[in-house]
Fold this sequence. Notes:
CATH class of the largest domain: Alpha Beta
Keywords: Membrane, Transmembrane, Transmembrane helix
Radius of gyration: 40 Å
Mean pLDDT: 79
Organism: Teichococcus vastitatis
Largest sheet: 8 strands, mixed, barrel
Strand order of the largest sheet: 13-14-16-17-18-19-20-21
CATH architecture of the largest domain: Alpha-Beta Barrel
Distance between the termini: 97 Å
CATH topology of the largest domain: TIM Barrel
Strand content: 15-25%
Shape: elongated
CATH superfamily of the largest domain: EAL domain
Low-confidence stretches: 1-19, 791-799
Number of strands: 21
Protein name: EAL domain-containing protein
Amino acid sequence: MREWLVPWRAASEGGVVRPPRKLWLGLAALLFFLSVGVSFGFIATQYRREVMIERTGMWLTGQASIEAARFNTVLTQFQGGQAPGWRLSERFEILYSRVKLLDTVQPDSDSPQITLLRQMQPGMMERLDTLDAELTALLGGDRTVLPQLAATFADLEGQLSEAARLLHNQARYAQTSVITGMRSLQWVLLASLAGLLLSALLLVALLIAEGRRARAMLQRSQTSARSQAEAERMLRALVGGVPAMISAFDREGRFLFINDAMARFHGVREAEVIGHTPAELGLEAGGRDLLDWALGSAGPTPHTERRVRNRQGELRTLLVTGMAVEGEEGKRGRVVLAALDITDRKEAEDRVRHLAEHDPLTDLPNRLLYAARLRARLRQARDGQGGDFALHLIDLDRFKAINDSLGHPTGDKLLLLAVERMRACLRADDLIARIGGDEFAVIQAQARGAVDAARLAERLVRIMSEPFEIDGCTIRSGVSIGSALGLRDGPTVEALQQRSDMALYRAKAEGRGRAVLFEPAMEELRRNQRMLEDDLRSALERNQLYLAYQPKYGLLADRVVGCEALLRWDHAVHGSMNPARFVPAAEEAGFAPLLTRNVLGMVCTQIRAWMAEGLEIRVAVNISATLFASGQAVQLVREALASSGVPPRLLQIELTEQVFIGNPAAARDALQALHELGVTTALDDFGTGYSSLGYLQHLAFDVLKVDRTFVQDLSRGDGNNSSWIIETILRLAHGLGAEVVAEGVETPEQLAVLRDLGCDAAQGFLLGRPMTAAALAAAFRAAPGDPAALPVMDALPRS
Length: 799
């Protein structure tokens, strides 16, 4: 400091203007305003980010997608006469207002998703206006607008789903930005605080130097005295205007100075504290340890957080730093402390962290926090701390069906009640987390082996099997649980999670509502399953799958009238594989659409080849139920017909009743779409499902296929139950205008009984085994006669 004052003394003693003093004052002011400006700039940026979250949340809380689902439900009820028109109109007005909320979400340069969403709004409002006009016509009695209304609503619903996805992405992006901004803001504030501290120290040093100079020149110049007073007022104004709390102490810890922020925080006046220690005044300011630390440090002490009570007795968090001020001969006799109240920022950080780590509905730890806790629990177990533990993965059974049928509010209430029940089964040191829509995870602490893990899992299954009472409705759900023991079943988070998931998969496969503990054999089965999936994917890419054709014999025409395409695969290791094994593997691996596209392509190509030979043979193809559930089946059939040019009448789609379980309305729409394409449909395995007759009441099939379980017991004579059942099915089908095909015919007696009963067609090993396309064509050309003359093909060539 003395080196800084040398130019001042030289300049003042020579009676000239003292630019060094003004230079340092300007530098201090510049440093002050720069620090304050940078801080306020970052604070403003952080505020904009938080506002961005609020804007996004305003539209999300509007629940436009949910209101769309409610509108669709009331529309369906209105069509069935179960809801009045005013209720439908009311639901539309609510939906309209929710979409209109998007006006409150203003576009921002930092939120491209919001800008994109605002670009989507005119389209959504246009569809709402169209929907309004169509709804008015419908309520006026014009039911012909129902198809157009449904199409308009489907477009709007798709846009709402996309809007919700964009807003959720924006919310996650904004939360991440806020957290990152909070961290950046901390460093900026720390840097600004350091700048403010340096400017204050510089001003204090200037004040001391100016005081010394003023006292030395007091008798010689009144002007110098006024300059000293002016400099002191400037210093006090600057230090008093600093938002940080600044105080100065002597070596004994007595107050030498406090600024206005410090006085307001403790509710004191500067004159009351000067010359006293904080302990004498009952104040929590600074601390003897911090003063000693500053006196022994070469520069400012590192910023530390301290919990201090203000004048109201509230605990506040202060970010504190200190610096010793050198006196004469380099002795350190003074300490300046600067503190910034960061309580609000800390609370905001805690809120953001909680939102980022917890599920907003149940307030349970989310997947992020769950993974961190599981990783920490594994680390403790490896270090021999905390004892053994178990991981339970829990799926809420039938949740999607409940959510779709009763609505999302009911689904949310079910989740909350389910969490409450599960918590009642857990100990205080157990952790439950929500890791998906209806997926939960429990980290069971102190699980002493498989017995403890199985006991908790069975208790959860038992208590969750009890019905729930929600809004006057009795709802039955239940859970499926897959469990694994920490360290024993998985040394890492990924391995433990994977093996728990294997056990959960087994629990679901065994009929749900079960708890299964992982066993090493499951991993071997899963490994074999993955190998099968890889081999099947390779076989699809290399076109190694092929078709065999089993003839359908018309009992009235006494000849082959069509066939069923059967998929075949000669595995390099396992040999000829049953489709019942590899088709489910394709469905689980997610390439059922690719498999179906290939099969339809091969079938249509073969039909075209037969047509080139002058033959029109109708081919039946069985399509996976999963494709009907996802709405892909009709599109795949449409693409195959369009690309091949095959007449739709030569293609028959076989469905099982599994297609209609879960979403009968979607299946009905798919069946209607297939009929509109001109494709015939057949209900396979008829009679084996408990609700087949219920499907016939609402769905129109062209063909009913009697399951082989009824055919195998057929015999001549009275009292044969199978004959009575098949005769009843024939009367029912013919009354509905459908043909009947009997499957699994293996004896002449079975064929004779079916012919006597008036069955339309039959297929089975007696009439022809699966054969090549050439053999099927030869059988189709054969003149009417004995079906035993059909060629039998036990083995099919690859070509």
